[in-house]
Each structure stands twice: as C-alpha cells, then as structure tokens.
Amino acid sequence: MSPRPPIVGIACDYRMIGPHPFDAVGEKYITAVRDGAGTLPLLIPVLEPAIAPEQILATVDGLFFTGSPSNISPKHYDGAPPREGVWQDEYRDATALPLLKAAIEAGVPTFCVCRGFQELNVALGGTLFQHLQEVEGRLDHREDKHATLDVQYGPAHEVRVAEGGLLEKLVAEKSFRVNSLHSQGIDRLAQSLFAEATAPDGTIEAVSMPAARGFLLGVQWHPEWKWRENPISARLFSAFGDAVRERARA
User: Fold this and answer.
1) Spatial separation of the C-alpha atoms in residues 120 and 208, rounded to whole Å
2) Is 158 designated active site?
3) Which pTM was predicted?
C-alpha cells in the first residue's frame, strides 16, 4: 500500500437544505486542496458543541479556511449588530475562530481565503468593515450576482505586493490582478499580522504573520477558482502543499 497523502482539514459552512441542517464546502475549494496542494481534503463539520481544536489538530497536517456567502458575527470583534437579512454562520464561527488560534500556536500550515481571511484577522484581534462599499474612498468589491460565474470570478482590480513579506517570496510579480467577491473587509488589522498586498483603494488583500511558526497566508480573493489557469494561484496552492508535506514528514 502506498502511504496516504498529508491531510488538510477544511472547515464547513452550516447550511439548511430544506428542513435539514447540512455541513457543506464548495467543491472548488476541495479540488484545489486535493489537486493544487496535492493533499487529502478532510471536511470538518461545524457541530454544536464544536469539535475541540486539539482533536482536529491531532488528525490533520494542515488547515484551509474557505470563502462563504455568510459573514462572521460582529459580536466577535465588538462590531455593530448585523443588518436584517445579512447571513451569519455562528456554527462556523464557533469552530473556525478557536481552531485558527490553536493552529497558529501549534505551527500547523494554514491557508485562508475570503471569509477565512477575515476569520484570521478577527481570531487575532482585528476588526472588519461590514459594508466596505459604503466606506468613503473604498471601491465596491462585490461581484455582479447576475453575471456568469466566469465574469464574477474574472480579474476585477490590481493588488500591489508589499516588500519583505511572504507573498513576495512566493510570487515574482510586484502587482497582479485578482477577482473580487466580498462586501466585508479588514478595518483594523490584527497587531500580529502583516499586510502582504493592498488594492488601489487601500483595502488589505493579503496578510501573513511574521512570527508564525508555520506557513500562514490569508488572501481576500479566490485563488481556488480555476487555479490551474492562473500561475499565481497555482504557486500559492503549491507552496501551501509543500508546507503541509513538510509538517507531515516532521
């Protein structure tokens, strides 16, 4: 028998499908973790009560936190109550936020995308704009939900890479274009995080943690979308997979 590939845990969303609750993850994330990172995806249910982080970390070699249509409950960063109709997912909050902190402390390789990027900032003490498009001087970073998926996930704006960070080591480009499908964004950056890239309006688009014991990267855009066709996305998933394999060997 060949040895199993290293395992990457992916925190699920809590979804109601008809009258029944489901734990769900978009397939685009799962396939990017399997094929882009070369690892074995393992879905983490967001149960009540939440599975203890130490039990999850005893099973996985890395973690991937996905995007989602839901928002983080603003109570986790002392934000104003959410507007009526804005989807919260407190089941995912209860699993993801403690798990992120425990993974960072343990040095487990972690890659965070969109909601996961925002979870990373909140877990470490940062805050969010709940409606970025209403902040003076900021662009509207939301997608056109009536457009085709290829248009929604098409390049929307440039990001400029900061000097001296992790992203600069992973990609050769000083700037590149990314997709944009979010209404929330970082307000106050967590003190331990480093802004790796910014949009033209100053919105933080990527972060790392210089003091992290293991690979830790968060991006606001969606590199999982057609990652094979995007050299930068492919590099990010490859670097994450390399870190996970190194952790598994150790």
Assistant:
1) 10
2) no
3) 0.97
Active-site choice (119, 143, 196, 224)? 224
Q: Among this protein's residues, is 222 annotated catalytic? A: yes
Domain residue ranges in the chain: 7-249
Q: If you write DSSP's letter for every residue of 48-107 in order, what string do you get?
A: SSPPPHHHHHTT-SEEEE---SSB--GGGGTPPPPPTT--B-HHHHHHHHHHHHHHHHHT
How many other C-beta atoms lie within 10 A of the C-beta of residue 210?
Answer: 11
Both tokens of 133, joined, read 């498009």
For the question of residue 141 being annotated catalytic, the response is: no
Exactly one of 112, 114, 141, 182 is catalytic; which is it?
114
Say which CATH superfamily domain 7-249 falls into: Class I glutamine amidotransferase (GATase) domain (3.40.50.880)
* pLDDT 10s digits, 1-38: 567 799 999 999 999 999 999 999 999 999 999 999 99
